[in-house]
Structures are given as C-alpha cells and as structure tokens.
Specification:
mainly alpha
Amino acid sequence: MTEWEEISVELAARALEIPNGGEPNRGSSSAAEARVTRIIRMIESCPDAQHGLTAIAREARLSRYHFLRIFQQLTGLTPHQYVLRARLRRAATRLVLEPARVLDIALDSGFGDVSNFNHAFRAEFGVSPR
C-alpha cells in the first residue's frame, strides 16, 4: 500500500463533501465499524503481509472511500500509518526478545531495506533499533 493511494482517496472523499458544505457524513454504521475492526485485527495478527488499501477495503466489503473514513475514525491513522506502526511494534518486540540481527528483523517485518527500517524505527521510538 502506498501513502499516495491513501492521499488520492482522501482527496476524492473531501471533494465529494463539497456539495454538503464541506461537512463529512459522520453517520457510520456499526456494521461498517465491525468490518473495519476485523481488518484491524487482521493487520495486528500479520502486520508484515501486504495490506493494500484496495484489497483490505474489498475484504471489509466497503468502498475505499468509506473504508478509509471509518478506519481513520476508529484509529486516528491511515491504514498505511497503522500497518507501519504495527510492523515497528512487532520488530521492537523481536529486537528485545530474539538474538536476531537488525537486518533480518527489518526484512522479516516487511521493510525493503535496513536504512528505511532504521529511519522509521527512530522516528517512531526516538532511538536506534540497536
């Protein structure tokens, strides 16, 4: 999933709100919230998997626009940000509990390279993964 995909969906959703005076429709159903909650649990159980916006919205049986809006209401984050933080939390736990190399944990956690992992880890936790 890319941040650009989420940004484009967010932009489109905001454009659709203009006829309503810029006010988003806040009436989300509890069924939609339950579907998004199921996706959140799925991300938590396997954060290193690919979680593209289109695929997870389809899994929740919601449009990308509605899924993104409900997801942000429930978590305060975009799906991309949430996945990144879930990956970093799991990596941090592994770094403390396992004798594995930082590189191996970074790659196992879904990061393409160790420098990207190091940068994200430091931004999230304020310390180096070492």
